[in-house]
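Q: I'm writing up a methods section and want to include an example of the input and output format. Could you take the sequence below and give the corresponding predicted structure tokens, formatted cleanly so I can copy it straight into the document?
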Amino acid sequence: MTDATLDHVFDVTEQNFEADVLNASLDTPVLVDFWATWCGPCKTLGPLLEQLAAEYKGAFRLGKVDVDKNQQLATMFGIRSVPTVVLVKDGQIADGFAGALPLGQLREFLERHVQVLEGETEEVELPAETPEAAINRLQQAIAAEPDRAELKLDLATALAQAGHSDAAASELDALPANLATDARAVRLRHQLELARALKDAPAQAELEQRIAANPADWEARDLLGVRLLLGNDPGTGLEQFLAILEKARDWNDGAAKKRLIAAFATLDDAELVSRYRRRMASLLF
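A: Here is the clean output for your methods example:
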């Protein structure tokens, strides 16, 4: 913790709670972090909150409550799990949340309640979280709050980003019905399906050589399309699927159509998707 952070972060006890939280919140909002030394997600959330306290430079203060040392305060706030964060403003609880939120969601939470001091904030870039670090954070959060099913979807996404396709698929299969059909879950299923297609697949150069030798090598076109789609040339990848659809639409039980549908669900380029969706429709109808 830096000296700048120390100016805006303090320990809350039962003795100083009324003066430093309730009364102080009449002038400046106080974010109260209920944590414990044994809590894994707390170790993730705490530094992020301290970072934001430093960035906001006095627009809010961060009070930290060790629940094991201040059980009366934890009981008064009805704390059932840690970490739990409560925003106290004008002497009253204004909002709060449970669990370790990522930095972006923490900023959104603060923006709803804290008036930024003009010219006083300085956004500090934190190192991007690696997929493995995200997996560790989410596993700890799920252990602390096993009923929060949305965390399991986040974990499946992190596992897929780290290359653990089988583990990601298992997490997806275990999602409750309301999340199994969530747009993120559907997209991730398609991404995993495409990634699995490349298991033991030849390299791009070999696939291109096979197509040059035999333009009707549909398997090579299919695998090349997936490689390009998941690489940095999705448009050319989609062209491979369209070529199969045009000349051999029934090949491999209509695989080209299925690939296109999966591709449309995973691509972020709306204009590209719209253009190729129209071309697919023109070949099918």
